[in-house]
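User: Predict the structure for this protein chain, please.
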Amino acid sequence: MNRFTNINRTWLLAGAAVVVIGGGVVFALTRPSTPPAAEAEGEHAEEGHAEEAGAAEGEVVLTDAQIAAAGIDIVSVSGGGGGETRLSGRVEPMIDARAAVAATVGGRVERVLVATGQSVRAGQALAVLVSGDAASLRADADAAQANAVAAQQAHAREESLADQGVVARRDAEVAHAQALGAEAAARAARARASAAGAPNASGRVNVASPISGVVTNVQVGPGGFAAQGGVIAEVTNPARVEIVFNAPPALAAQVRAGSSIRVQGPAGEFDAQVTGVAAGAGAESGATVIRAHPTGSSLPPAGSAVTGVVVTGEAVSGMTVPSEAVQTVENATVVFVRTATGFRMTPVLAGRQANGRTEILRGLTATDRVAGANAFLLKAEMAKGEAEHGH
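Assistant: Here is the predicted structure, written as structure tokens:
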């Protein structure tokens, strides 16, 4: 009886274990599983939400330090705009950079001291003349000086005698006046001799250059005769040159001193500033003459042909930005406007381009500040972000 009971208990325990194990297997098979791809998508979704929290679409988040490190300039929207007018010109010596050195007195050319192409300094002698007129001027100066000395000595004697009571005081006063007249005559004689080139007692005169530069022409030779006022040589200072443009007469009312010109020369482009505008200064054509100096660069040699582009027809109510600030993203014209956290891509309607600036007809306000130089880096950063989202 007891043995039968023990056998039944053993089978009951075994059956209960089978039921428990079977139920676990069924639960494991019927439990829904999460695929790895779904888990990956969830992770990407969380990353996407994190990115959206940092930067909205069309924005680039950058700190001030990152902007400075990238070399991105931030510029304000400025007024203006206009069209371009192309001009032809030439590099010419300035008015004070050319000297036609002439003989102040007529005389024989004894020596020529320079040749074409030679560099000279201000005050350096170019030729030596021997002149009878110059000798007379020097003699007159010497005689006048001698008369002045004699008059001063006579005045001194008359003053001494007047103090002793030998002569009247009036005689001393007359001697004083004569001494003053003799001194004035001596000064005039010395000035005439100096104007003639300060000749020596033999009448030799040095014809000197008034400026430093290069001798471009010599018109006399030893043994020749130079008439008074005749040109001995020409000197030009190559360092003092400017650009001279011949423009249409109507341009005189549109260009003023201080306007900018983009100049194309033999060695490339450079910026210049207008220094003067003269309407009708062209002797034959009556064209407007525009003179300009380079800003921050040197000019080509005198005689070089150049072309220039000047902005005309400026619109005061318009807005412009540097042309490098305007970018094209997905066939749309945009600029990057500065925000508190970086930059925001803003579509704009661009107008004319002139002198390195682009007119903005719509899309910006006068208070906006935009990325100028190296704005293309922001465009590249946005393209990089889109590529990462695509993966």
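The two ends are 77 Å apart (CA to CA).
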